[in-house]
Design a protein that fits this description.
With 267 residues, the protein is an alpha/beta fold. It has two domains: 4-81 and 194-266, Rossmann fold (3-Layer(aba) Sandwich); 86-191, Hypothetical Protein, Haloacid Dehalogenase-like Hydrolase, Chain: A, domain 2. The protein is built from eleven helices and 14 strands. An eight-stranded mixed β-sheet has the order 5-4-3-2-1-12-13-14, with helices on both faces. The protein has a six-stranded mixed β-sheet with strand order 8-7-6-9-11-10. A hairpin with a 2-residue loop joins β6 and β7 (110-113). The protein starts with a strand and ends with a helix.
């Protein structure tokens, strides 16, 4: 019996235009009304994920920052967070600054950045000394990004050398030479033990759910730990090849309502 379905957002729940189809909204709403916990589990920051969760009528719970935070947005309560090593954050910022890349920190509800590009309220430009900010705030995830593929690719080894953290997710072009090198090229970085899989374990403890009664649906490398943890795993047809290898099942693409098609099948 399924008691919770953990669903990634980008490349999974939403199509390639970052839209929620009417079929997806209808299906998630139906599943929720029938008592299923649909939990969005994303590398996105908290406020952004909450908006998407409400749009598709999922549960009140969200897992954000790649597993660094579990939040109940109805009661406005943080249930779990995994705080990054502060020295590591400073080193990551120095790497981003050297190549003039965007540096983003998931803090609380929003993403604090050195240079705002999205003016929807999900990003806040840092106006104070960044080292003081890191010392005085809990950061769940850092992201280094730029539209220049070669710039971001060139700092991969430097990021991997930073102690106590690791790359949790990255633009598919950085690991798949056949994937288009366009859009925003990025690395998501967090504590070594911070991932979607561990967040699911914490979620299940809090809600007294047996792990075997859970399903995970995703498309990216940061979904691998989630797949290895959940009782059953479903990869999108457009998923990274390495994720497909560990999936129990493969559904349609995100542009062909893969999530909705799978949920309809099990309802």
């Amino acid at each position: 019996m399924c008691k919770a379905i953990f669903v990634d957002i980008d490349g999974t729940l939403r199509n390639s235009k970052r839209e929620l189809s009417s079929k997806t909204i209808k299906t998630v709403r139906r599943a929720s009304k029938e008592g299923n916990l649909i939990v969005l589990c994303s590398g996105r920051p908290r406020k952004y994920t909450e908006i998407i969760s409400k749009q598709c009528c999922a549960s009140k719970y969200i897992i954000t920052s790649g597993g660094g935070n579990i939040y109940d947005y109805n009661s406005k309560k943080t249930l779990y967070k995994n705080i990054m090593d502060k020295q590591a954050c400073k080193e990551l910022y120095n790497i981003a600054k050297r190549v003039d890349a965007r540096f983003m920190m998931d803090v609380g509800a929003c993403r604090v950045v050195n240079r705002v590009e999205h003016f929807d309220g999900s990003e806040i430009e840092l106006k104070t000394d960044i080292y003081d900010f890191i010392d005085n705030n809990d950061i769940m995830q850092c992201t280094i990004a730029d539209k220049d593929f070669e710039k971001i690719k060139s700092i991969g080894d430097e990021i991997k050398a930073v102690k106590n953290v690791e790359i949790k997710n990255q633009h598919k072009s950085l690991t798949n030479k056949n994937y288009p090198k366009n859009g925003t090229i990025y690395y998501d970085i967090a504590n070594i033990e911070s991932d979607k899989g561990n967040a699911i374990k914490e979620f299940c403890k809090i809600n007294k759910i047996d792990i075997k009664d859970t399903i995970a649906i995703g498309d990216g490398l940061n979904d691998i730990d989630m797949f290895k943890t959940a009782g059953y795993s479903v990869a999108m047809e457009n998923a990274h090849p390495n994720l497909k290898k560990v999936a129990n099942e493969i559904t349609d693409t995100n542009d062909n309502d893969g999530v909705a098609n799978f949920i309809e099948k099990i309802l």
